[in-house]
């Protein structure tokens, strides 16, 4: 069934308080929910009470303490309906039974390892008890959890601990109370035998908060970095947004079976353990950064998501886009702002641009959905964060902060909308934001173009900016958006020019920020002594595609002189793309392979200056990935052709720069003990890049260096880096390294995930068979989402040539897994299937093969709503 934003109406009832009594049992957990209900003054008068359920078994219902008979209600696994209820306040006591062991969907109450845990966002609470399972019904929860003392010595829920005690038959209980009204999706419960890392944090007003991170026994030390990140997040939110933590305790639990990254349940965050556990021996620099970001993200939700929640699921970006923006800013403050921005934009282009340009495109605030779980997307999260960033860019940092203050002040304790949010910034800035708001409702990535004309006589330079947005499903006509274009002009000697023009407002010129609000705008700058170089969309000031890229000579100049590091990186990327596509064109025409001396010269300069900012240099020296190439090509994509062109350029660069790279590699090899900080991570990134350059020019030498690095590595970043190179180089050395890696880490699930992933991404035809064989490996399992993603997700999303093999074997593999997984874990199946979202950009043969599989999937009876929705939309 389609759910539409325009159909929103308030609930007919409110639930002021919920008392839950949950007795944990592996197959028959008993749930007694006592709801304090009353009619919503904003609801339909006299309406029946209709509660949501999903897969529930009802045991009994009492109204104001009186047991009801079957004539008083209708109950089904998916709803409980009471036609007649009192007009005044009343209580309803509902008893249900749930089987956590049979819950393979990982939504509701389920088991991960030997622990009980929950995941209620978006609609999992209705798998625990009948409820008004919608985010605009806010209640105060008191939760009593009971369990076996041996099986579950730890019993946790939201809020503050109230009391606990022993019971007969080896059981015990704990009562938790959360004084902050919250929607049901923020409910959580954990029971299990877990170890804890404990700490405390004193808030800005001097309140001492007890912190704990619960993990598998023996892994407590691996939560140290997460704990440190949590305390830094708490401090940062006080300093940057004035937000103080509000309960007496803050608990985090790491579980190994989790559909997503983590969940911000009030006072009890539940995490995929991948975003908690780290040690130098088992986690890479990327893993450490991921932990820091996700810990911050979930913590920041306490205000943006929990204290102020969403009126309905169409407003998901209200909490997610804003919270991603906040975690990005946190990481930028903790690490390097430039490197963070480059990484965030790479992520946006990798995941969101293809979504926005294909059949699954939807607005940041969608207007219709069939399955809300399919809308936890890169568009809602990452493009949602870009909208918040643009807003800040437009109104300025201070006004933005004032708007946030108004938002927290005015909407605390409510379920808000995007309009509510924007109204705070309209008030703070005095601006009309109604045109800006179009970013929330119009899907698709706008294309921005710039055209410059220099008049040497008049000494003027005219810059014409144009925007247009290609059509997306259901939106054929697009309007111009408010696009903030940060820009600068550079003169002959690389100096930044003063801007003077009658066509722009003084504040636009002073800030170097042009606001493009129409389809086209022309600005003529006066007093320009020679043809300038334009640096546009600095810092990636809007989530658009800038096309075409400046001409190569200008890019080389920007690479040398731009004081915006993002655009310096962008210049290197644009040059690389141009060099690769020149090879693609030559290959298509059967012409001689073009060389790229200008580009290689520019890379040599970056390499020579790499010590000044190793992380930046490594980013600038990295070629765009094959996925980047496929996206930039946009149509008739032949992955094999893209792969050879990229691989050929890599060799050309290696032959030219390998000798320069080797001493850098050797110098960086002697780094001392591991530290996860950004500067050290940057040096390791540069070292990996240098090794790749050596290997690209001289595979034998590269292999020898990689083998010794693999054997001697003192941390996972270096070990996995070496293994990545050996995997690419192939042969005996590769197989030996994979075997040794397995032997060393076979007891560690998170490290084994890396072992599976890396094999799935080997760019050669034999990989499909390798993946099929790995599915029969004793360590492979379809029930663990991390493991499925590490093998199947990596193969279908990150191995362009392997997955898109012309015999269709990759597509068959994905089809088989999706259909096998669908009845067990539909959320995961649907997500895996969305790997096919860009199928129409492929060349005709592959397009045909995928279409056949999509039709086959869509035609299955009994398909979950999740997978059905993706298959149907992908074909639309
Ligand atoms: N709110 C969580 C986060 O952003 C994501 C949970 C989504 N879960 C789901 N099954 N849809 O951190
Ligand atoms: Zn979130």
Automatic annotation (TrEMBL):
Gene: pepN
UniProt-recorded name of the protein: Aminopeptidase N
Transmembrane annotation, as ranges: none
Pfam families named in the record: DUF3458, DUF3458_C, Peptidase_M1, Peptidase_M1_N
Top enzyme class: hydrolase
Domain annotation Peptidase M1 alanyl aminopeptidase Ig-like fold: ranges: 444-547
Family of this protein: Belongs to the peptidase M1 family.
EC number: 3.4.11.2
GO molecular function: alanyl aminopeptidase activity; metallopeptidase activity; zinc ion binding
